Amino acid sequence: MTEMETGAVTDPAPAGAVTDRAPDAVTDPAEGEAVVDRAAEAVIDRVMPSTGGVIPKGRAGRAASASTASGRPVEPGPAVELAGVAKVFNAGRPDEVTALDGVDLTVGRGEFVSLIGPSGCGKSTLLRLVADLVPPTGGTVRVADRSARQARRDLAYGIAFQQAGLLDWRTVARNVELPLELRGLSRRDRQGKAREMLELVGLADFAGHYPDQLSGGMQQRVAIARALAVDPPLLLMDEPFGALDEMTRERLQDELLRICARKGTSALFVTHSIPEAVYLSDRVVVMSARPGRIVEIVGVELGERTEATRQSAAFFAGITRVREALRGTPARSAPPAGADQAAAGAPA
Ligand SMILES: Nc1ncnc2c1ncn2[C@@H]1O[C@H](COP(=O)(O)OP(=O)(O)OP(=O)(O)O)[C@@H](O)[C@H]1O
Question: Where are the annotated segments for Disordered (predicted)?
């Protein structure tokens, strides 16, 4: 199992890195601008699974959604397309694990799709396949009309995974700024954007703190701020709100929806929370226990989310639908959750 496969960052500070918070940027005397610190640069690839869409150096300023790395325009198509995808870990060995089998799934542009299922059913693996952090053993994975490999090179998505994956020798603000530095934004622009993102996640007062001075939930919010900082056309999120208190979680859910709606961002979102999946999603993909297969896709039609949505009959109906699917209740040929209540004139 490689580091890239696990997404773990076992040693975030590379050889020669300063771990006692020495100045973390190299100043370019010609520009008077801080440029990407060498230590951070050296670990970009290793922290990619959890650094929220870090931009590889050399692709600065390229519009990920509009063209490929070669500048070739990309035809609009699904954000993600999986066909017959399988993943077997350690094939042929005694510890062989079939994590996924026969997965077909399309995420439309601008669509919000959640994955839910029992622990170990392959949700994270599915996300890692899309992010090109592990290769499939069967089937095809396409992201924004490209191979997953090409999409990664083209910066076609941002990632926020379970582990915050912050660089502990950088301040909170400079963690959020990292992908912007790699994209070549001026100091002023990236500082402004970092401030905006930290305000969004309620951490403006902690911009100058270091990650180990924050709680786990706060670190997670910094990682979310960093993932959103580059306005990626596709977000891959693996339980990003799992460590948050309920009120913060609900607020960030609303913010995430607002951002996705405003930017037309597509999202593939892993969660263990049925209400969260229903609230956020256009469709909830329910997976079986290992080997993970899609057992049902529950469409959600709640309309614009408001204060009342979480109390609405349609919301509870959606929760019931997903719960039944998780329990293995035979799929019914019913309209999307929400549509039946609306048709019946049920109170919202
Ligand atoms: N790198 C790996 N090497 C070997 N087995 C792996 C690897 N990554 C995942 N697995 C196995 O694949 C299966 C699916 O794991 P995965 O983490 O995708 O599940 P999950 O649905 O995200 O679980 P959870 O909800 O508990 O986070 C598990 O049995 C896991 O042990």
Answer: 1-33, 50-76, 329-348
